[in-house]
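User
New here, explain this?
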Amino acid sequence: MQDAARTACVSRELSHSWRYYPELEFSAKTLALCEQHTSIQGQMATDILKRIDDAMQNRAGVWVKRLKFELLFLRKVPSRCVNNWLDAAAPGIEELTLKLPRDDKTKYKFPCELFSDENGCSVQSLCLSICAFHPVQGSCSFGNLKRVNFSWVRITTEESLLFFSNSLALEHLELWFCHEIACLRIPCKLQLLNFLQVGRCSMLQAIESDAPNPSTFHYEGPLIQFSCGDAVQLKDINISIYPWFNLFYYAHKELPTIAPNLETLFLMSADEIGDFYPLIIFQHEKFLHLKYLELAIVGPRTEIGFHFQYYCLVAFLNSSPVLETFILHVRHISLHKMACVFFHPFNHFPCHFL
């Protein structure tokens, strides 16, 4: 009887502790699924969704601060299920992660109005993947939102501007594979924005940022128009251009003007042969504060390309009087393999430290 009593007491304590724990995560790991389980459907998917429903119902009336759904292992998640989960969690949530199955063609429409200030929501971090985000004027104020991470999210140029204009506390912004944005405009209202990362947005043609205090800018994709306004605070730039553009020449010519206080620079480009620019054109540009320089060169095995690329390196070194660290990644490949290079992590390049 004593053992039974102890077990009952512990069970009550654990139940009470779990029901009031501020974080809930639903993923393959927390649901005890094997790594081999992908694109789950049928009865197994129904059972998993019921388990999530039961867990959310047990937390009914108890606010959750951090809620994470990583449901990439399912074939499809009904919109009504997601709506029920978010309805139950919305009042007190501060951090929300919602990653839905990539094969789901329905493209769940995220309920922007549910997490707006008008409904008393205080969400500070929003991470969305594989859904649609369509804010509406008058019901999309996110005054407490500090961090945004969108990947494969359907949001247009106009909708993104509306969203940013009503998220004045935003500090960290990441956009990946958001293919409906043609021009990314960052309004000057975002006084606190210090980190901007944009990658693989196929329709994107320009980035126009008027934010006064960005310190970090990362970009991956084809060459587009960049406008950073008065970027005196910009100290960290990471740019990967693909394919076939003279990125090193562009960076050496433009970045000292765009970011005069730049301290850290990473550049990756394929096929830097282009037209041959005389070394003398680089001499008047200076990176007066650059301390860390990392360059990744991917190009065909051609004599012209070899000489041009290394002339650029000399120019960079001559223009960086306070440089402390220089890392060079070099990989020469055949032309027909060029398109595949950018699917490999950067750390697979052979490294030469100079």
Observations:
- Helices lie at 2-19, 42-58, 79-89, 157-165, 247-258, 303-318.
- Residues 274-282, 334-354 have pLDDT under 50 and may be disordered.
- The longest helix spans residues 2-19.
- The CA atoms of residues 147 and 163 lie 13 Å apart.
